[in-house]
Amino acid sequence: MRFQWLKNYQDLEEQILFMKWNLNKSKLELERWVSGDLANVRLEKNSRSASLEENIQIIEEEIELLEDQLNEMVLLIKSFKGLDNQIMYLKYVEGMTLEKIAEDLNYSTSYIQKKHTELRKAIDFVDEYILNKNKLKMKISLQDHREKLHKSCTTNSSFKLD
Known about the structure:
- InterPro entries: RNA_pol_sigma_r3/r4-like (IPR013324).
- The chain is 77% helix and 0% strand.
- It is mainly alpha-helical.
Protein backbone atom coordinates (compact mmCIF):
# COMPACT_ATOMS: atom_id res chain seq x y z
CA MET A 1 0.00 0.00 0.00
CA ARG A 2 1.36 3.38 -0.98
CA PHE A 3 2.20 5.85 1.79
CA GLN A 4 1.87 3.17 4.45
CA TRP A 5 4.96 4.57 6.18
CA LEU A 6 3.20 7.91 6.66
CA LYS A 7 -0.10 6.38 7.68
CA ASN A 8 1.64 4.37 10.37
CA TYR A 9 3.40 7.33 11.99
CA GLN A 10 1.33 7.14 15.16
CA ASP A 11 1.60 3.35 15.26
CA LEU A 12 5.37 3.69 15.05
CA GLU A 13 5.42 6.15 17.96
CA GLU A 14 3.35 3.71 20.04
CA GLN A 15 5.62 0.82 19.09
CA ILE A 16 8.70 2.79 20.18
CA LEU A 17 7.02 3.67 23.47
CA PHE A 18 6.19 0.01 24.10
CA MET A 19 9.73 -1.09 23.19
CA LYS A 20 11.20 1.47 25.60
CA TRP A 21 8.88 0.21 28.35
CA ASN A 22 9.95 -3.36 27.57
CA LEU A 23 13.61 -2.30 27.62
CA ASN A 24 13.21 -0.62 30.99
CA LYS A 25 11.40 -3.66 32.40
CA SER A 26 14.17 -5.97 31.14
CA LYS A 27 16.90 -3.76 32.60
CA LEU A 28 15.15 -3.72 35.98
CA GLU A 29 14.87 -7.50 35.89
CA LEU A 30 18.56 -7.82 35.00
CA GLU A 31 19.42 -5.55 37.92
CA ARG A 32 17.49 -7.89 40.23
CA TRP A 33 19.53 -10.85 38.96
CA VAL A 34 22.86 -9.04 39.16
CA SER A 35 22.66 -7.24 42.48
CA GLY A 36 19.13 -7.48 43.79
CA ASP A 37 16.96 -10.01 45.54
CA LEU A 38 17.67 -12.69 42.91
CA ALA A 39 21.46 -12.36 42.96
CA ASN A 40 21.88 -15.64 44.86
CA VAL A 41 19.44 -17.66 42.75
CA ARG A 42 20.97 -20.10 40.30
CA LEU A 43 19.94 -19.56 36.67
CA GLU A 44 19.20 -22.39 34.27
CA LYS A 45 21.34 -22.24 31.14
CA ASN A 46 18.45 -21.90 28.67
CA SER A 47 16.09 -19.80 30.78
CA ARG A 48 14.75 -16.46 29.62
CA SER A 49 16.57 -14.72 32.45
CA ALA A 50 19.90 -16.18 31.35
CA SER A 51 19.62 -14.35 28.04
CA LEU A 52 18.46 -11.00 29.44
CA GLU A 53 21.60 -9.11 28.41
CA GLU A 54 21.32 -10.37 24.83
CA ASN A 55 17.59 -9.55 24.75
CA ILE A 56 18.31 -6.04 26.02
CA GLN A 57 20.80 -5.52 23.21
CA ILE A 58 18.28 -6.74 20.62
CA ILE A 59 15.58 -4.43 22.01
CA GLU A 60 17.98 -1.47 21.94
CA GLU A 61 18.86 -2.19 18.31
CA GLU A 62 15.17 -2.45 17.39
CA ILE A 63 14.41 0.87 19.11
CA GLU A 64 17.25 2.49 17.20
CA LEU A 65 15.87 1.22 13.87
CA LEU A 66 12.35 2.38 14.71
CA GLU A 67 13.57 5.81 15.82
CA ASP A 68 15.55 6.13 12.59
CA GLN A 69 12.38 5.41 10.62
CA LEU A 70 10.42 7.93 12.68
CA ASN A 71 13.11 10.58 12.19
CA GLU A 72 13.08 9.97 8.43
CA MET A 73 9.33 10.56 8.39
CA VAL A 74 9.65 13.76 10.40
CA LEU A 75 12.43 15.04 8.14
CA LEU A 76 10.35 14.32 5.06
CA ILE A 77 7.31 16.12 6.46
CA LYS A 78 9.47 19.07 7.54
CA SER A 79 10.92 19.31 4.04
CA PHE A 80 7.56 20.58 2.83
CA LYS A 81 6.83 24.25 3.41
CA GLY A 82 3.73 26.28 4.16
CA LEU A 83 0.39 24.71 3.33
CA ASP A 84 2.03 21.53 2.03
CA ASN A 85 3.69 20.99 5.40
CA GLN A 86 0.43 21.62 7.24
CA ILE A 87 -1.46 19.14 5.07
CA MET A 88 1.21 16.46 5.48
CA TYR A 89 1.48 16.97 9.23
CA LEU A 90 -2.25 17.11 9.91
CA LYS A 91 -3.05 14.18 7.63
CA TYR A 92 -0.28 11.75 8.49
CA VAL A 93 0.88 12.72 11.97
CA GLU A 94 -2.37 13.95 13.49
CA GLY A 95 -4.53 11.54 11.46
CA MET A 96 -7.03 14.18 10.35
CA THR A 97 -9.28 13.81 7.31
CA LEU A 98 -8.82 16.09 4.33
CA GLU A 99 -12.28 17.53 4.99
CA LYS A 100 -11.33 18.44 8.56
CA ILE A 101 -8.01 19.92 7.40
CA ALA A 102 -9.84 22.09 4.85
CA GLU A 103 -12.25 23.27 7.52
CA ASP A 104 -9.51 24.05 10.06
CA LEU A 105 -7.31 25.87 7.54
CA ASN A 106 -10.22 27.75 5.89
CA TYR A 107 -9.78 26.23 2.43
CA SER A 108 -12.27 24.41 0.27
CA THR A 109 -12.25 20.63 0.53
CA SER A 110 -11.61 20.31 -3.21
CA TYR A 111 -8.54 22.57 -2.98
CA ILE A 112 -7.05 20.55 -0.09
CA GLN A 113 -7.81 17.32 -1.94
CA LYS A 114 -6.05 18.68 -5.04
CA LYS A 115 -3.01 19.80 -3.01
CA HIS A 116 -2.91 16.41 -1.28
CA THR A 117 -2.96 14.61 -4.64
CA GLU A 118 -0.06 16.75 -5.82
CA LEU A 119 1.88 15.97 -2.65
CA ARG A 120 1.30 12.25 -3.07
CA LYS A 121 2.61 12.38 -6.61
CA ALA A 122 5.62 14.41 -5.50
CA ILE A 123 6.73 11.84 -2.91
CA ASP A 124 6.07 8.58 -4.77
CA PHE A 125 9.80 8.07 -5.21
CA VAL A 126 10.37 8.40 -1.46
CA ASP A 127 8.01 5.54 -0.81
CA GLU A 128 9.99 3.28 -3.13
CA TYR A 129 13.28 4.45 -1.64
CA ILE A 130 12.20 3.66 1.92
CA LEU A 131 10.74 0.31 0.88
CA ASN A 132 14.04 -0.70 -0.72
CA LYS A 133 16.05 0.66 2.21
CA ASN A 134 13.95 -1.30 4.72
CA LYS A 135 14.32 -4.49 2.69
CA LEU A 136 18.08 -4.04 2.80
CA LYS A 137 18.03 -3.40 6.58
CA MET A 138 15.90 -6.51 7.09
CA LYS A 139 18.34 -8.59 5.02
CA ILE A 140 21.30 -7.30 7.02
CA SER A 141 19.48 -7.81 10.33
CA LEU A 142 18.48 -11.36 9.38
CA GLN A 143 22.06 -12.15 8.40
CA ASP A 144 23.33 -10.75 11.73
CA HIS A 145 20.82 -12.84 13.69
CA ARG A 146 21.77 -15.98 11.74
CA GLU A 147 25.44 -15.38 12.51
CA LYS A 148 24.67 -14.84 16.22
CA LEU A 149 22.54 -17.99 16.31
CA HIS A 150 25.23 -20.03 14.56
CA LYS A 151 27.89 -18.70 16.95
CA SER A 152 25.65 -19.42 19.93
CA CYS A 153 24.96 -22.97 18.75
CA THR A 154 28.63 -23.72 18.14
CA THR A 155 29.86 -22.30 21.47
CA ASN A 156 27.05 -23.33 23.85
CA SER A 157 26.51 -26.98 22.98
CA SER A 158 28.33 -30.25 23.02
CA PHE A 159 28.17 -30.61 19.25
CA LYS A 160 29.46 -28.36 16.53
CA LEU A 161 27.65 -27.24 13.40
CA ASP A 162 29.70 -27.50 10.21
